[in-house]
Description:
The protein has helices spanning about 1-35, 45-55, 60-85, 95-110, 120-145, 150-170, 205-220, 225-235, 235-240, 245-260, 265-270, 285-295, 300-315, 320, 330-345, 345-369. The protein has a single domain, classed as ABC transporter involved in vitamin B12 uptake, BtuC (Orthogonal Bundle). It is globular, with a radius of gyration of 23 Å. It has about 375 residues and is mainly α. The protein is built from 16 helices and no strands.
Amino acid sequence: MISGAASNSGGILRQTLLELLRALVAVAAGLLLGASLTAIAGENPLNILAILFRSAFGTPWDFGMSLFYATPLIFTGLSVAIAFRAGLFNIGAEGQLTLGALAAAVVGVTATGVAAPWSLFLAVLAAMSAGFLWGGIAGVLKATRGSHEVITTIMLNFVAAGIASFVTLEMFRNTETQNPETLPVAASFALKPLTMFEGAPTTVAFFWGIAAAGVVAFLLFKSVWGFGVRAVGQSEPAALVAGINVRRVQITAMAVAGAVAGLAGLGEVLGSAGRFRLGFSADYGFMGIAVALLARGRPFAVILAAILFGALHKGAADLDFETENVTRDLAVVLQASVIIMVCADGVWDAIRDGLRRRRSTAIRAESAG
Length: 369
């Protein structure tokens, strides 16, 4: 029995290593594919890759900026991954993070008498609650009315933007500037930059993202709720037969996904900006979809995928200065090529099956001879 358990464990380890190798090869192939396109513009692809790497990781400040850009992507990637596991597609992370960041800013502006660390706890709770509510609305519409979550979450993104505009400009506007932003949050709510990154605005919010990945992994793979989520995502009819309340799972999955997405803006609102600014998100909610796809819905892989995308975003910033024919928009091309290569499961499987058939044919021919 011990031998059987060890064999099973070894098989799982081999499968995990194989999937990791496939992901690494796909990422490398995607980067090479995207970089090779710069040759058409008259640039050396290897020089482009060198600039990207140096700009993203060359100094502690560069690395800190890469992590700063990666931080919101961890939360939005986890949010989309949770919905994926339930067979749902959360396009609404952008609206959820907007309202989460706004709620944290409102608390930071109004609850000036709360001291740290309770102030940070209050801000996190407000952000998660706002995201939870906004994701839950889409979940309820899906479960009770059959409304497709893609449509409802896209529409809710626009509603969230309107609410954010009203609250920012009509209720908590900072009248000392022409920028569309709220009043600054109280000092007790501020997240200070980590000194190890030499001035980069990276805060403890990055480590909150790592902790969130651990919590999500536990919920999805070690809890009864997570079993229900994965069961519904794999087969709704089978889940119903097993006695799982599919409607409840859909509602809670979207709500929890929204709560995680609501945390994505804390690094900006409580950290670098110290206030809520309209349009602060660089489409983090939509980029989270790409992060979740790259990570194949695995919480800890989301961290690595987010760092990769953050590094590409930071690294591409220097292309405007160090090249003549390529701009920072190359980061989008690289992200797309990486996603294409990672998602090309059919190609990988075809290559594997072809090699197996060739080997089997060779073995049969050798046996017949």
